[in-house]
Each structure stands twice: as C-alpha cells, then as structure tokens.
Amino acid sequence: MTEEAEFIEQLQNQHTIKVPEKNVDFNSTDSFPSLPKSQPKVVNSWKPPKSAVKTTTERLEIPLNMQVRQQLGKQTSASQVCKDLMQKHKTSIEFSTNKNTQSLTFIITGLPENVKLARKQLLNILAVKITETITIPVMVRPFLLGKGGSALKELTSRTLTNIQIPKFDKNNETDEDIQISITGHFEAIQDAKKEIDALVAQRTSNHYQRVTIERSFHPFLAGANKSNVAQLEEEFGIKIHIPPYDAESTDKKADEILLVGERAETLKCEAKLLSLYEEFKQTTKTLNIAIPKKQHRFIIGPKGSGLQEIMQKSGCVVEVPSINNPVDDVLIRGPQGSLSAALALVLERANSVSIGEFELKAILPPTVDAALFVKYLLQKERAFIKNLETEHNSTIQFHLSALSVEVQAKSLADLNSIKDKLGKFIKQTSQSLYLAVCAVPNDLHRFIVGKGGQNIQKLKGKEEWDGRLVDIMVPAEDEDINEIVVIVKKKAPNAASDKEALDFATQIKKYVVDEANASADLTTTVLQIDQKYHGRLIGSGGAALKEMLVPYGNAVIVRFGSAEKNTANSITIKGPQNDVAKVASRINELVGEWKHIEVMASFTETLKVPNGYAKQLVGTGGTGGKDINWISKTVKEQFANKKFKLGSNEKSFEKDLTGTGGLYLSFDVASANNEEIITIKGPKSFVVAAKSILQEKLVVLLDTDEVKFNIFDSISKPAKAILGDDDEMKKQMIKFLIGKEGKALKKILESCNVQAHFSKEEEEDENGLGFVHIHGNKAGVVQAKKAFIETVEEKILNSYSVKLVLPKASMSVIVGRGGSNMAKLSEEHKVRIDFGLELDDDMIECTVEGNQAGCEQVKEILENIGNDIANTTTLNLHVPTFLHKLVIGSGGSVIREFIETLGGSDRVRINFPKPNDGNDPNIIVVTANADLFAEIEEKFNALLVQVVNKGYEKSKFVKFLDLNHTPKQTVAMPKSDANVAFGRSKDGLCDLMRRFSVSIWPSESADTVTYTILGDDEKEMQACKAHISSKIRVTQTVPVPASILDSIRGNQLVLQGLQDVVKKINSGSTSVNLSAGAIKGEKDGHVLVKGEKGKVAEVVKSLTAQLKQLELFKYVSLIAIPEEFGAHIIGRKGITINRIRDESGAHLDLDQHVNKNTKTRNLTIRAANETSLEIALKSVNDILETQRALQESQKAAQVPARVDDDVVIGKTGVPKGVPSGYHGKSKQGNKISSMVTVNEPTFTNVKADTPAKQEWESVPVRNKKNVDAPISKPEPEVNGVIGSNGVHVEKKKKAAAPQANGHVEKPVVPLPKAPEYIQPEPVVDEWQTVNPGKKSVKPTTVEQNPATSAFQGIPVTVSSLSLISTEETASKKKKKKKKAASSAVPSE
C-alpha cells in the first residue's frame, strides 16, 4: 500500500483539534539553520554563516485526534496537498506518519512569511474544523464588522476562520452582550480570539487582568463543571477565562487566567484566586497508577464528563496522558484524604468496559485487500454490524491504519460472543466475495448509480449474471476519484477462483460503463445574457443557482463568463441534453421577467427638501443600504395596512410586498438653488408611497435641532486649569461620560430624547478630543449639552491623580484580604487606586485618582507602606512562655490592641511560638520595619508590665528584665512541686513578680524546673528565692498511739474516728494520709503528712494533739436514729446536742449518710469512761422517748411536735423549762394555745410569722455551769484551730462555738414500727424549715466545746435520726461491727 493510501486511512474518527506549538531542532545545513518561531535575540551563542536568503523551518504536528475525519470513499491526498502548497508558496514540505501514535508530522522550510502561510493552509485543509462561541459587548459589533463588513473580511482572511455575527435587532436593544461563533482549526480560532479580545479591550472600559498560576491547579480553581468559576463570576461581576487544561503543553501562556471586568473587581478576584492557589498548594498530594492506554478513554468519558464526575465526587483532579503520549500512568492529584476515593472511581471507570482486538490479516485470505474489505463492511454490511452492537450492547471499531478490529463490551461474555460472531462473519464473507477495483471516469458515476441507486439495483437483478453481482461501491459525488469497486460472488471459496471472479467483474464493469455512456447523452449550451443579470441568477452565496439546479440532481453544471476572457455576457450550461434545455429555458424566462419589471419600474417622482436634509432622508441615494431599506420596509407596512394599493397592471409586484427583498426603488439626490431634489424611481404605486413617507419624515426633521461643540472648550475656567493639555485625561473624561458599555451616555440621551455622536479617532486631529454632535428636539438638545458639560466639569473638578512606584510585595498589604484595605482607603478618602505597569521584577506603578487632598493623604499612606515593606525584617523578643497568654489576651484582644498602637497589622506582624515546633518557646517573632524596632521594644516592655499588674494596684513590678540582666538568682525544685506551687500555667509566678518586683524565667528539664530571678534589689531577689524554696514539699510521719491501733483491731468505730481526724485535718496544699498498717491496726501504723515545710509543721502539731485526744476517748457506741428525729437530737440552734456534751463530757457525731432501706442515720458517741457514755446514751434515749410519746399523743389532733431542744417532759407532765400557766409566743412568733400534760399532752397548730430557717442561723455553745443563760451571738473560732470550713482561724481572747446552718429537707415522713419500740404517728413539726426553692439543703454543722471534746474542730452533720436500742444482743453487735469496719467513711 502506498504512503498516500496509509495517510488517507488514518483520517478516521476524529473530533477535536489542538495543534501544539513546539519548536524543535531540525538538522539542516549550515546555510539553512533552525530558527525559533519568534526569532529571539541570542547573546554569546554560535551564529550560522550569513546566507543570501534567510529561511526558516517549522515543525507542525497534527495528532490523530486532531486530524480531519474522512468519510468512507472520500479521500484527501496529503501528498497532493503538500505538492500544491509547495508550488503555491515556494516552500519545501515533508511529511511522515508515526506508526505508534498515527500523528502526522510536517517539516516546512522556506521564507518566514511563506512558511507561515503554508502552515495555515495545511491546518485549514487537514485539521478538523471546530466552532467556539465567545461573548462580546454589543457596542463592539460595528467595530468588528467595519464599513461594509471590511474589518470582518480582513480578520477572517488573516486567520482563515469563519466568524458569524448575529444581525442587529432594533426591537431588542436591551441586550448588552452578543454571542459570535468562530469556526476553524484550533490555531486559527486562538488567533481570531486574540484579535477580538484586543478590539474589545480598546473599545470598552473593561480591564483585562492576567493571573499566572500553575496550570496543574487550574482544575481545582475551576471546580467540577466550572462551578467555582461561576461562583466567582457571580461574586465579583466579572468574566473569568481559564484556558483548556493540557498537562503536557509547554506554552507558558497556558498558565495565565484572564479576568475581564472592572479593575477593582478584577484585583479582588485576583487576590481571591491567589489565596485559593496557596491553599491548594499546601493540601494537594499526588498518586500515580498504571492503567492500560486503551482504557484511558473510559476514564475521560464523553467530552471529559468522566473526569468531571470524579472531581465532583472526590475533589481530586485526574490527569490522563494525551493519545500521542505512550505513557500508561494516570496521575491523581488532590487532598490526602480524598486520593483513595478518587483512585476507586478511576479504577471503576477504567474497568467499566471490556476491550478486545484482533487483526484482520489473521482472518482474511492473503489475496483479499484488507483495507478495501473494511470499506465494504462499513458501507454495505453496516446493518449487520449495528445489529451485533445492539444485541450485545457493545461498540465495534475498524482501524484502517492498523488493519484491526476493536470490540468494546460491558461484560466479558458479550465481548467473547461478539468477537466470535464477527470473526466468523468476516471469514465467511471474505472467502465468498471478490472485490475488484475498476477505473471509471468520475463524470459517469452518477449514471451508474442512477436516481436513488435504481441503476445498481437493476444491474444486480440481471438474470444472465445469476445473482453473482453483490454490489457496486461508487465514491461520493464531490470526490475527484475515477474508480469504482465491483463486488461479485466467487464460484468457490478458494484462491483458484479469484482469476475467474476478476474476469467476471471486468465484464460487469464494461457493461456498466457502456450503459452509463448511453444514459449520459451530455451536451453543452452557451447563452448570451447581459452581465448585469448574472448576479441575480447566482444569488447570495450561490443560493439562487443551487435552488435552480436541485430538480436535476446536480447533473447540470452552469458556468458564468468573465470580462478577462471576453465572455462577460456568456453563460455555459453543461449536462444531459434534456436537462440543459430545461435550465436554459428557465434562465431565459427569469431574465425576461426582470426586463419587464425594469419597464414597469421606470416611473419617477421628485421631492424638494432644504439643504442638508436629503442625506438624513435617503443618505447618498442608491437602491439599497441601511439608508434606503427603512423606506422599503415602511412601504411594505403601509401596503399591508391598506393605506396604498397596487395598480391593475402591477399585480406582478404582489410577491415583492411579502418577500424579504427590495421593491425596485432607487433614489437620486441633486442640489439646486439652496435646496436638494430627491428623485424617486420605481413602480408607480411604490414611488407614490415612498414620497409620502419621506414627506412625513421631513416634517419631523424640520422640528429638530443640532449642536456641535467641544466639551472641553465649554467647561469652566477652574476645570480647564486642572485639565490643561492632558489628552490622556481628556480620554478618561470621555470614557467616564460614556460609561460602562455606554450606559451613562444612554441614560442622558434617553432622558433628553436626543442622539449624540462623538468624533472618531480619524477626526480627532481636526476637531480635537471631546468634540460631540447632538441632534434631536430643540429643548432636548439644550438639556443634553448642559448635562454633558456639567457631568464632565464635575468629574474634572474632583479629579486629581498622583503616580508613585511601590514594591510589588506591598500590593497584598495595600489590597488586603478580598480587597478590603484598598476599598477602605478608597471610601475614606474618596479616591480610586489602580496598579499599572510592572516596571521590573520588584517594583510596580500605582496611580491614585480623586480629590487633591485625598490623593495626597493616600499617597503618603502608600509610601509609608512601601517603605515598611522595603525595610521589613524580623525582631526576636525574649519573653517567658507563661506570660504569652497575658500578652495575647482573651481572644487575642490585648495583642490586637497593641498592634493597632503601632500602626496596625499592615505594618507590624507578631507571631507567637507554636508548641513542639522545634523553636525556642520563649521567643516571640516580630516582623516590621527596622525603624520601628526601638519603639516596639519599648512599648512591648510597657505592655508586659501592664498585663502583669492588671487588677493589682499595690504591685511592685515596674520593669521586665531579660536573661542578660545582672544580678540574678537561681533556684530549682521538682517539676511535680512546681505544678502544685505555681500551677501548670505558672500563674503563681506573676504573683511573685508583683510582690517582689522581680522578673522570673522558668526553664524545665525532665524532672526539674529552674527559676532564674532577675531584679535590681538584691534583698527582694533573696526574698523571692526563699519564698520559692519554701514551696518545695517535704514529708513527715506521725506515729499512731499504740492504744488506738489496739482498739482498731477490735472496734472498727475507732478506725472511723481516726479516719475522721485525718480527713478533717487534710488541706489542699498539705496532704494527710493513713498508712496501710494504721488501717489494719498494726504496730508500725502511722500518718503520712506531705506539703510545704511550714505548713507540714503546723499540721503535725495539730494532728499529734488530736491523736492524744482520740486516745482518751476509748468508749464508743453507735445508735441508728430515725431520720425524722435528727432535728430533735440537735435541737434549735444546736442547743440540745451541746447540752448533752456539757452534761456527759462525751463527743456526739451524727453521720450525714442516710440508710435508704431503714431511713436512719448513725449517731456515734465517744467517751473517756463508761459513766460519760451512759449519761450521753440516756440523754439521747430520753429525747427519743419524749418525741415518740408526743407523736403518739398528737395522732388525733395532728399537732406537730416542736423541734425544741429544751422540751423534756418532766414528772409533772409539763415540759421542763416552761413556767406553769405560761401562754404567749415563741421567738418566731408561734403562739402556744395550751400546755402539755402528762396524761394527755396536746398542742395546737400555730402559724409561723417568721421563716423557720432563721432559727438555725446561729447555734451558741453554753457552758455547763450556766445552761439556762440567755443565748448570745457566737464569737469566732477558738484557740487557733482548724475551723469547720478547713481555714485556719487566728486565736481570739473570747471564743464560742461556730455558727451552724442547716435545714430539714422535707416534712417528717411516717416510718414503720421499730421492733423494740412503739412507733408514733408522724407529726408535723412547727419548727421544721422547708426551703421549696432549693433541691438540696446544706447540713448544719455544730462545733464541739474545745474544752471538753477531743474532736474539736470536727463538725457534726445534722440529719434525721431513728433509734436503735442499746440493749442489743452480742450477735447483733458483732454484725454491726463488721458492717461498720467494711463501710467506715470519715464524716464531713
């Protein structure tokens, strides 16, 4: 097979073109060296010898997916194309085909301009044409078209593109943008777009900002299906163009993102894009995976939909090598956590289709031309292939270049099935058919085929051929190929029958050609028709001629003569004789009609108008154009409205009134005697209507006025003084007056109902900048002129601009996040800030525009920022870590305020160390201008003093000192003690700094903290050191007396007492714990005390004293008190329990814990002897019996028993302490209405006037000698012991028991009857205190008399009580001792 044939076969199944621009080293002679396309200046490099003719060489590669798709049987000879272009452009062109990638490579050598033209022509012929749509402002449309479309024609000619611009719609003038389509190869489209963008930028106020960002991050910025781009465009109101992503492109421009819109908004968007870019750079990771090349297309999906789907679901970008790149690796890029999900999606899509391939040579007989056979299959057996694809939901592709068949199926079973069926079909068909290529002139092809292929069908049915003619393949009509393929059946499926089949095909070919020649009957006719009618016969773009020849199946060819060959009036018609006669007759008929119309359209009328108005009515005259078309359109409307009617002999013009063409009207303008004469020629009825229309328009024009003036000559003197001769500023004023896309100008014109035109660029030299022409109604013209002048004048008076050069690095500070800083400056000072040209790699030009005062102020601010940035460096501040949080403040408030005092975060940035980042944790890094360092250090030291002393008026701390200061002191302590002494955050160190006027620097090692103390007063430093040393904890043991240890082994109540002593003496900073031996009662039992040295000594002293007291109280008894009787044991304000202590000398401790089953609380009584214990037991039993008796006696009356610590029923039946016959109110105002008797004690219910809780606020302790003494207000804690709240109390001369507070949580609840006693009915106690507003009530704590109690300082917890008989059996006592030992808990 020839090289040309191979090239033709490769042009299949293409869809998108993208021609990479690459310069390669081409091996040439010294006289013809390779030069880059742009021919950059090369310094200090080898130079080739000079040649008489400068030539250049370019390499053009068209990948397989960029090659034009060829239809079967319609071939384009690459060889012939190259030959034609070489001859036309005098260049040398060589081409080759890559066997692996199937891409075409062309090497073009010649003069630079010829090489450029040849390159464009190659792409235009061999590269696929694509269409792109872009949007441009509607106001740019006339400039893109040019006069009579000249600009557009030049553009399309230069770029070899086809550009479609929609027609202007007067009825829809609200559209601001229009869409134009550009068709051509990729390179041509890019060239055209570049020129159009430049034109748009020139003619609009839009700013074009290009942002350079690595192309590999473009997909992340664009988002899936460009969702992020849409969001940014909506947010900033601009257009964002991100170039098509090509990971393998070497073009640096592919990194550029184009932003189009208002300058301020584009700058904001640029900052946002750069911020997102930096964020993606920090989080993006990559993953490579090898996937067979054939499966890449399934990952990509139709038009890249697969890649977009993966990105939408996983947030990752998948990069697939191009079809020309033999690499199998697929790159996945995205966040670390999303790579696995993206990989799963990639593998899923890659394996979604099963692929199989087999070579045709392995199936076809060696005598069969594989390429020819594939063409037969695709043309004649397409139905069979389609059925196979539908049946198995698969796709079959024939590769002509590789002579292979590829099958794609959803499952492996379908793949195997279709391969088997297709292979069998190909094998059987190829063995039974013979394909013969026969040379037949192209002109006879249509006669062989016949109308709708009927001739071939007749040939196939000829009896003498016995059905052996299968088919005839004929090239397409527009192909210049003089061959057909005759397909016949072989007599036998072997090579021996091929000779007979070829002879048979040749016989058929001879018959077919003879028949075609007989049917053709070709003839040629030449008509002489005036050249002026040729254009109408051809029509726009040849439409009229094509329409005329359609009935003849394009069998007739019509060619028009030319003046160069002296055949200007000739029309040559070639084709079948009958068809030629019909076409000639139709042409003569049309020309005759047009001549008749010319006669009918010769009527004329004249209209005289004042000078200058003819142009406004009909322009320069003529038969068409926009100045005339409006008249024809209006005439049609008035005939449709029946304002005019056609004459009886004008019926032939009816079709023109409903068509889109003209009305045969022409207009001619002549001047005479200060007036103009318009001559109207055409059909009479149309002329009359046109004259009437022009007369009506003239009336309107006569009422209009116009004014032409220069805006800048009409403004006030102050405005002129500011403006001067600055043409650039004048242009800016004109742009401002016009506004964005002409909106401002349009608003003025609409309000005044006038029209205005500014002088064009070519007229500016004559009229000057700012020349404007306004015309319309007289009042509107005056109003519009005033508005123009006032608008420009106001803008000038408020316009002042300064230019300055700033470091590029200052842009981010000036602009701020999202443009906030620049917006703030602009708003505060009423100015506009623009960044202009980049002067070099480090500097950029900035322009500030606005009022003069604002511009100068902003200029100073920007210069300060630029100076700060230019001299920015870092300063290390050494500050202990524990002070950092004070410097930062709540939510960063302190440091933010401090930064503001230095000029804000734009001038100063402060970074605190991060934990475990490997840097010194005591160093705070300040980034600022070096000139500010002295001020920053001074103010920062003042800030340290301020935050340390905050809230402490008497602080001595006045100056912070660093480690370089002398003198200094150091002290070390274990890290565990340091945390206890000063807290983990070292807040306690601030107290020492305030107290001793020193600076403290802690430094930690594995187990030790060393404190460096710095100050100016040696005495204060020593005092601080001593204080820190005192915080070092010591340990001391206190032995438990042997008698107590012996008692513990026999009585768990003693252990409970010991635990109570330890628990009560324990404090936050000093820990007191029993040893295991002490708990078990072993000989070495002791108490371990750990804490600060001074406090340990105090605790040991107190503990030793209390252990001695505990040793004296050897007799212990435990009583379970019903919960409702607890208040009676305590008595009002603790008076009852104190009386029992005084009388018995015993210690009573009421457990806070309530037994949920028995509703009782334990009362522990400890005494030094049996007598003391018996007295206390008897007193408790008396109270319980009395209360039980009162409960029984009050069942019927439901009178509550009083919680009265002195109420004890005596032998006379009257409570002790109550005088006989007494009636009155108690302390709380409760009235006693009757006395209690022995036989039938009764109480009446009384109402409390005062809240009962007041009775429990103070429980004074009365001496044993004066029990009945009046109750006085208690004094503070006695003799320097630990109080009930655990706080040390200084020694006082006069002492009394502490106050006791407590409440009964709820009313008394009836209990089941105890075994040893008769349970009384519950009574409501008029002295009970119920606090409904609180869910829990603090218990009342009563201190013992220190003179009699070994448990001084240990509070008694008030609870409800129940009675357990002291006369218990030995077994019960044993059980209780075991239970107490297992659950003994020190009382609080």
TrEMBL record:
Residues 54-127, 128-201, 205-278, 283-351, 432-493, 521-592, 601-699, 703-793, 798-867, 871-946, 1113-1185 form the K Homology domain. InterPro entries: KH_dom, KH_dom_type_1, KH_dom_type_1_sf, KH_Vigilin_N. Keywords: Repeat, RNA-binding. CDD domains: KH-I, KH-I_Vigilin_rpt3, KH-I_Vigilin_rpt4. Coiled coil: none annotated. The keyword Transferase does not apply. It comes from the Eukaryota. PANTHER family: KH DOMAIN CONTAINING RNA BINDING PROTEIN. This is K Homology domain-containing protein. It comes from Boothiomyces macroporosus.
